[in-house]
Amino acid sequence: LSQGNESSRDYVLGVDVGGTNIHIGKANRDCVPLKVKRYATDARNQEALIAGIMGSMERYLAEAGPPAPRAVGMGLVGHVSVAEGVWENAINISVTRPVPLCATIRAKFGLPAYIDNDVNMAALAEMTFGAGKSHADFAYINIGTGISAGLVSNGKIVTGASNYAGELGHMVCDGEEHVCKCGRKGCLEPLASGGGMIEMAKKAVQSARDSSLARYVQDGSLHAGTIFREAEKGDPIAGSIAEKAMSALENAVVNLVNLMNPSLVVFGGGAIEKDFILNRLTDFVYQNALPVAAKGLQGIRISALDPSLVGLIGASRAAWDGLGMT
Amino acid sequence: LSQGNESSRDYVLGVDVGGTNIHIGKANRDCVPLKVKRYATDARNQEALIAGIMGSMERYLAEAGPPAPRAVGMGLVGHVSVAEGVWENAINISVTRPVPLCATIRAKFGLPAYIDNDVNMAALAEMTFGAGKSHADFAYINIGTGISAGLVSNGKIVTGASNYAGELGHMVCDGEEHVCKCGRKGCLEPLASGGGMIEMAKKAVQSARDSSLARYVQDGSLHAGTIFREAEKGDPIAGSIAEKAMSALENAVVNLVNLMNPSLVVFGGGAIEKDFILNRLTDFVYQNALPVAAKGLQGIRISALDPSLVGLIGASRAAWDGLGMT
User: Fold this and answer.
1) Residue A30: partners with Cβ closer than 8 Å, 6 or more residues away
2) What pLDDT, in 10s, does the model give residues A34-82?
3) Measured between alpha carbons, how far is residue B226 from residues A51, A159, B38, B191 in Å?
4) What pLDDT, on a 0 to 100 scale, did the predictor assign at position A23?
5) Of B161, B166, B259, the CB nearest to A167
6) Is the pLDDT at B187 greater than 90, yes or no?
7) ipTM for the complex?
8) Mutate to test the interface with B, among A77, A148, A159, A164 (most CBs of B within 10 A)
9) B260/chain A closest Cα distance in angstroms
10) Could you say which DSSP state residue A77 is in?
């Protein structure tokens, strides 16, 4: 983890809660993360999870010593009510009852807290440092276990009515009959996310044990990138899965560009296939989006931000925004 | 055309330029349209079109007499650059070279002018008077010859980078192999717009002359509503077209609800099938949207605004907004 130098005693605490790790760091007024530390997420149950987050913050602040931060910004997976300060639910880490997280933080640490979901935090990070800095209308698309988007319109995150906008993964965009967890057929997520591609590979190798994917499935090391690589080497199972993923993502991104008219699309997340995004997808989008939308789109890029810091940057930006100091 | 009472001498001029008619009316500070008059659109060529718009405004203002309006708001079809005040292009009425319309209006009438496309004007009208008044995040979907949407996020129109956001008609959302004018297969517009459905019916009756649609095709009176009605009476051609339209629109609206998380979806336009929207579509969306998005959606409605006044209301709102007086 890269660590900047502490340039000011005026800082906020950024907290990025993921399924495996909690990253905590200070951030100065420029949202540069400093003294970043990593703690394990205790995801056994909801009580352990919340206690673990609070405990990690306590340890961090005790080690950091005075002065206290001005506020806390926190990125979370799942559904977050920003205005209410409530973590409504999460599927991968089990949050089944709403957690009044901002009130809990204020009660324990005496600090104002600002929370949002991880993809909105990533979009905020892009607005602060990344490719989105010079774009008022852009889409940040995260492809990891699932697929979701942070949409920015006229310099503001599109939140929707329940801060739930951006569910690009559940856009039906293909003739595929593949059934999604959400119940519909042809959604993007089961076709083009890392989780979806791995799932398809597991099913496929059951009846195609000679596929080069079989040994990765067996030793549990299968990654979306492996599927793309084996596809390129000629494995037909991998080829079919990669082709479905690429075709679905092509359709979804053109749909999004036609609907939102962004000047930039930025990709992040652990399951992006850079060569595909930068070559085939980019060509497809410019050739297939409506002419005015294609003309307005200045680029399709991979996020240049450090994946281990992007959540912290966004969380600290949310804290400064919340304090009205940006 | 309904006409309110003139309650104030402080007014703007609303102008709604359609493919067939130009509607012009005064509007007071509450955006109530007054003394609405209708002029024919002269769509022979671009020069005649612009001269006709200017001439209609001149006649209207001469008949209205003093005082002069504070500003002009104008709704247009096609692509409009709001900030530049330029009508970039339109397909149905031929605008092939950009028209600096705001500068032309200022030069001729000495008035500030504010222009936007018709669907954004309809969304503004909904924000002012309609169902969208109590909703900060809603989608207005117009189904007429084509299909497009005015998207409202946090009380503001989502413009995109080129004021071209909202092209819902060119969302691929179906396994249908139908090729759209935009070049992609499975777009919503050729399947579910009035224009698209009529096009499909014309093709189908060529090889199915016993279809009850044949005589409507022949006498040129075919309307999307006819196709829905004949489908209900059991005509198989009409049934197939109606089913494709409904299925595509169901998928597209769920996609939109998942992506934008609106608290309201409002339908307008001449080709909406009220029974389908209010019954089958509504049921489908609530059953198939992601649970949080479905919970946030408070309703799916047909616009209650008078179709002949909605453009004028939006145009006058754009004028008051432009003057900074809302």
Assistant:
1) none
2) 999 999 999 899 999 999 999 999 999 999 999 999 999 999 999 999 9
3) 62, 39, 28, 15
4) 96
5) B259
6) yes
7) 0.92
8) A164
9) 5
10) S
